[in-house]
């Protein structure tokens, strides 16, 4: 509960009212926030952050074993991870949750690293991946496969990005409807698509993998673990807006567990249906889900040529257009929820002395970090324009690798969050925890090891089996390019860390100056109090001197 501060009261809060030693600027910024997230909104926001349609196509394109390992990792990784996130988010409910967890466990510097990495990923993903998927969706279902002109591409993609920034800038009361629409689009599209794929298989035969292909092998794990862990990213996002919720201690664990269950169902049924019915050649990369929808919807009207070209006609074209709109809404909601959470996370980190305060400005009317949102929009736009130019050649190949790793590098945050969970259990044992994870040490170590293995495979594909071998090497790369591939991704990671260090240095300087100001103000108050006490003593002495002779008479 916030209290009004009098003019002469020192800025430093007492330890009992501020147990986590948050800065006065952090505490004052919380007063601008509006509590507009109820239980349903928290759940919808969490679903949009975790369940991405682009991920369905990526996992399906990885083959049957990727789906098998996804089922295994859902049990041994996603479920315990959701338990950890539920405990942390319900125990530490201040704004900027993930930053706060890490900061309390390991200090502001490590907290700054996690906040910067999470933020860096969001605009790059929005502009470098989701905007291109949105363009492909519009071309496929709303333009009958006709490719956009250069002008139309830039107009559509930039509008997609900046509509997302506007949605992040407006108040949560208005912006939360993006998440609501995103969930509704998923609830309509994914079940309908799954039923349609099954009907397509019954009518045209099951042309995909056989049941025997859903096996488990070490090389299958090595090839797919990075993709699968990326699919499970995002449970912690909604806790970045904890102070904008009406009941975070109750609603955050509720959202974590139900989002995980829905992710297993949505991912499981749709990916299995794609793998069993459609040839793998018709499902590829980030636009794989779009390709799969178009192929399946030929059952309502359309054809698939011998070369794999898909044409929708009649009812198939109409239903495809509706599906295209739903896909655009779902993709848009995914990008917006990630931007809203990562920007809030970094903004509160900056107010807590972990970055420059000026970029974290919170609009008092809307209660949102508009300046940081706009910076994210500029970065997303720059990535979009660069990605459009770099389509061929070695430069495009290196850019693609750097882009993909910049997106997946948010996995690095989990290398700190899961150990922080253990540290915080020991460091703050008396903090109220509505939910407690059993065997917390074992769970913390296990999750950290799984994430470390996944990041290793992203940096060095095939490590532990056949590094950069044919089964693990990305398309367009040859066997002797393993070192440049590794160094490209490492350079991206080091670049993000360097940016985080710069943010921390600026924030640390501001924090030192603020503490100096607080000390000076407290010294002035002490001096004023001492002067008041001295004058009071002088007055008492004068009174005694005056009353003394009178009493003798």
Reconstruct the topology from this structure.
Elements: H1 24-30, H2 39-50, H3 53-61, H4 64-91, H5 97-106, H6 108-142, H7 150-169, H8 172-204, H9 218-231, H10 248-277, H11 288-296, E1 302-304, E2 310-312, H12 314-354, H13 370-389, H14 393-408, H15 414-427, H16 440-459, H17 482-552
Antiparallel strand pairs: 1-2
Verbal overview:
With 553 residues, the chain is mainly α. It has a single domain, classed as Amino acid/polyamine transporter I (Up-down Bundle), CATH 1.20.1740. It has 17 helices and two strands. The chain has a two-stranded antiparallel sheet. The protein starts with 23 loop residues before the first helix and ends with a helix.
What's this entry about, in short?
This protein has helices at 24-30, 39-50, 53-61, 64-91, 97-106, 108-142, 150-169, 172-204, 218-231, 248-277, 288-296, 314-354, 370-389, 393-408, 414-427, 440-459, 482-552; strands at residues 302-304, 310-312. The chain is mainly α and 553 residues long.
Average per-residue pLDDT, rounded, comes to 82
Distance between the termini: 59 Å
| Largest sheet entry | 2 strands, antiparallel
Radius of gyration, Cα only, in angstroms? 27 Å
> Which architecture would the CATH scheme give at its second level?
Up-down Bundle
Strand content: under 5%
CATH class: Mainly Alpha
Number of self-contained structural domains: 1
User: Remind me, CATH topology?
Assistant: Amino acid/polyamine transporter I
Which series of helices and strands comes N to C? HHHHHHHHHHHEEHHHHHH
SS-derived structural category: mainly alpha
The spatial strand order of the largest sheet comes to: 1-2
* Unreliable spans: 1-15, 517-522
Give the name of the CATH superfamily: Amino acid/polyamine transporter I
